[in-house]
Amino acid sequence: MTHPEPLEPQDLRVRCDPETLGIETTADVEPLEGMLGQDRAVAALQLGLGVRQAGYNVFVSGPPGIGKMTAVQPFLEELARERPAPWDWCYVNNFADPYRPAVCRLPAGQGRQLEQDMEEVIHQARHAIPKAFESEDYGNQRAEIGDEIDARRKVILKELAEEASAASFTLKFTPVGLIMIPTLGERPLTDAEVNALPESAQKEFEQKRSGLEKKAKDTIKVLRELERESRDKRRELDRQVALFVVGGLIDDLLEKYADEQDVCDFLEGVKQDVLENIDAFRESDDDDDGEEPGEVALGQFAGIKAPPWLDDLPFRNYRVNVLVDRSEQQGNPVVVELNPSYHDLFGRIEKETQFGITHTDFTMIKAGAVHEANGGYLVLQVEELLRNSFSWSALKRAIKGEEILIEDPAERMGLASSQGMRPQ
Fold it and tell me: Which H/E stretch holds residue 246?
């Protein structure tokens, strides 16, 4: 029996001649791009990721620790760079239903611009509207309305007074209305003096009083109409002044965002809401007094700081909550979420509680990984996802319905019954 010829240790090692490599050190070697020895996996990824239709997703499997995430993420990032950045997403106030905040979709980078534009509108309105109401021209127009109504009121009352005087009565205004007092010459008669008159004279006074009281009721109705007309004219004047200030600012933005119907609807709502809440702007100028913002004096709570949102509440409705900002985005987003809890995936609606008051609004809506990855790629560990039953069922609903809902899981389970926001 022959035995193999023994080998020396140096014979078991392949030696490569460095001269054949064309480099001096390994530092000169370019890093490997892509996956080594996984040509079929690369082809499958390229095929799966090339399908942009709904319902097509990629599932990567393999033994733990072989670098699936490490291999897939750079592949996605390279592919994402070749595609444009998707939309910005913003939440704004829904003036028709504040519990259903409205969503605005804008080209990448314009969401933050809209936010800045609305902050400028709020700043200008808070300073310009009070100054407009303090102007001499506004004061003169308001005085003209008052003078006109007063003149008409005096004419009406003069006619009634003359008619009453001709019937030997004088008018007296009281908190309960007009009282007709009989007179003798120009001297009012007391009840005792009236009762001392002959019965025929008393009946004559009562007949005249009855006719005058009917006339007085009609006159009071006319005076109330005058008061209503005065209020309407002052309110219309206030609207015109506010519209002159705010209308130009809003109209500029309507022209700027003319192609974005969601934004235009919001801006029209802002304009109308400002006109309906002018009093919130009348005293909003920061120079009105020396108190710090949020300073309140409520009886025993004098000097206590009010919640910041309470001081700013009238103007929050005009702000923009930029949920997803793509202003710095290059290409499609690639979002890796290692902890796919419900709130990490689908966002949350935060709340503020101070002095026992819990408050929330559309500005407290926060995005989740699904929002950030919208229009791009979301990478999840499927085992972690399946451990979160709410996340898994919600993700399936989002993929099938092509809609991302931000809600509290407790409400879906029926554990919370208070009315809350349900953003679009």
Answer: helix 199-256
Question: Hey, what amino acid is at 6?
Answer: P
Secondary structure (DSSP) of 171-240: EEEETTEEEEEEEETTEEPPHHHHHTS-HHHHHHHHHHHHHHHHHHHHHHHHHHHHHHHHHHHHHHHHHH
pLDDT greater than 80 at residue 315 = yes
User: In 3D, which of 346, 284, 335 has the Cα closest to residue 312?
Assistant: 284
Token readout for 20 is 């054949």
In whole numbers, what is the pLDDT of the chain averaged over residues?
Answer: 82
Reported as a pLDDT band with limits 50, 70 and 90, residue 293 is very low
Q: At a CB cut-off of 8 Å and minimum separation 6, what does 310 contact?
A: 294, 357, 359
pLDDT band at 143 (very low <50, low <70, confident <90, very high): very high
252-287 as b/e: b if 16+ CB within 10 A = ebeeebeebebbbbbbebbbeebbeebebbbebbee
Separation of alpha carbons 404 and 378, rounded Å: 14
Burial of 118 by CB count in 10 Å (0-12 exposed, 13-18 middle, 19+ buried)?
A: buried
pLDDT at 61: 85
- Angle 210-216-218 from CA coordinates, rounded to 5°: 110
Q: Are strands 334-337 and 377-380 parallel, antiparallel or unpaired?
A: parallel
Reference 130, options 285, 18, 254, 10; nearest CA is 285
Buried b (16+ CB within 10 A) or exposed e, 219-228: beeebeebee
